[in-house]
Amino acid sequence: MQTVIEAAFPWLTVMILLALVASALLWLIKPLRSVARPFALGVSLVILVITVVALAGFDMDQGNIVQLAETYPWIPTLGVSIAWGVNGMGAVMILLATFLVPVVVLAGWNDFDGERAGGYFAWILFLEANMIALFAARDVFLFYILFELMILPMYFLIGRYGGKNRSHAAMKFLLFSIAGGLIMLVGVIGVFVSVVQTQGTIPNFLIDSLAGSIAATGSTKVWLFLAFFIGFAIKAPMWPVHTWLPDTAEESPAGTSALLVGVLDKLGTFGMIAICAPLFAHMPHAVNVTIIVFAVISILWGALQAIAADNLMRLVAYTSVSHFGFMVMAIYSGSQLAISGAILYMVAHGVGTAALFLVVGFLGQRGGTHSISHYRGWQRVTPVLAGTFLVSGLATIALPGLSGFIPEYLVLMGTFDVVPVAAFFAVVGVVLAAVYILLPYQKVFTGPKPEIEVPDLNAREKTVMGVLIAAMLALGFFPGPILDAVNPVATDTAVLVTADGGDAATDVVVSSEGSDTK
Question: The pTM is what?
């Protein structure tokens, strides 16, 4: 069993309960809804501060060890417990989630009025509690319950607060999510039965306890793996189970899309590393190759669809399909360097894509539409908006000095050492990325000055984009602390995902103190 460091104080429980209680108060106390905006912002900032304080004592040298652990009995007859704890990857993902929520609250300050504002921010806080709990869950059954519970806030954030076709988008999101959850449930039951057959007793559902305990072999092991993987692939989203995302992003409020794609969709790649790798180690080589092929298709398909898109929200959604392809390719390459890059990519993509969704939302509020063909020459009337769009876009296509460069470089270099053909096609995706960002910028913001008077970004909106751009620069120039935290996780994962009978790739571990051969 993996070593677990118990928490001296229940930080994770406090964070989860604070968000849940704040959400409930907004629903139950009607007068509180009149101050829903400052209330939600204040609570989310407090949770961010608690996150920073809790992670200040995180031992990055032991990033592969579960820390801040808490365990409480829940359903003893099934071996299920409420168990929290984070390794380096979980820690940085919780930090990403708690960082983006107050930014989204501030960005959506004037999106809704009165009762609608209270409901919207209540669901945002509920979603924050769900995100923290998911990235901290150490029990497979608990993770599954939270994975399904995530559907509830997202369904209402899309279906009640979205655009004119919000009902269709919410239903499509619901159907894909339920389908993925039901397939995963088959895997959860299969794991339970497998362990009972092996041990003769009710299993402990903790992830670190189940690792290495599943008796299934051959095709049974592959099918159990696929039950989990398909659920995560839908969430990721990977081609061809990605089709829910463009519709959802197009109809959702910008802040909802920012949290959905910036944080929640990372549960797909997070689950592949945190659950699939330890529970189903050393899958057959053909499985890894097949996944890499689908990942490469995702990279190219997402990029081409982004180039063809006329709606900016759909464009950003398709770029994310492409970016998630990079992450999945890296994970199943078995390269430690590439997996470190994939985890850093999860954080960098979360910041950059959230910025893109929010700035597109600011543009849509001024122009009344997200259609590219509606705009021309807006740089001349909204220069700050144009500049923040460009910087956010360049971060997502890996401009050196911004958040996307280091992770994409690590992914490509690590994958090239192991699967050079996949890396070659991924480089084609990098070239296409420049087209799907720079071409829309040219169409929307360059050209003659339009005969329209609209305000540029106000102080609140500049603060939102300034914070996100500062985060992009910090990740671009100082990625070392995050890499130090996730490198041990990547090293362990590289061994686990290496094909049955193979050897883990030997890579260079990049840290804030230079390079060390592992």
Answer: 0.91
- In which element (H, E) is residue 290 found? helix 285-308
d(CA 251, CA 236): 19
Which residue stretches of 65-150 are H helix? 88-107, 114-136, 140-149
Three-state helix/strand/coil letters over 184-203: HHHHHHHHHHHHHHHHCCCC
What is the distance between the alpha carbons of residues 132 and 425, in angstroms, rounded to a whole number? 35
Q: CB burial class (10 A; 0-12, 13-18, 19+) of residue 123?
A: buried
Tokens standing for residue 364? 């849509």
How do residues 55-74 score in pLDDT, each as one tens digit? 998 888 887 889 999 999 88
> What is the Cα–Cα distance from 225 to 183, expressed in whole angstroms?
11
Instruction: Give pLDDT tens digits for 191-220.
Output: 888 777 776 666 678 888 777 666 656 678
Instruction: Select from 414, 440, 426 the least CA-distant residue to 310.
Output: 440
**CB-CB contact of 312 with 494 (8 Å):** no
DSSP string, 60-82: GGGTTSEEEEEEEEEEGGGTEEE
How many Å apart are CA 37 and CA 254, to the nearest integer?
A: 16
Tokens of 273: 């590393």
How many C-beta neighbours within 10 Å does residue 146 have?
Answer: 20
All residues at 6 or more sequence positions from 11 whose CB lies less than 8 Å from its CB, including other chains: 50, 53, 54, 68
Q: DSSP letter for 260, please.
A: I
Distance (Å, rounded) from C-alpha 511 to C-alpha 410? Answer: 12
C-alpha count within 13 angstroms, C-beta hemisphere, residue 423:
18
Q: Give phi and psi for 66, each to the nearest 5.
A: -70, 125
For residue 470 the two structure tokens come to 């500062």
Q: What is the mean pLDDT of residues 153-177?
A: 89
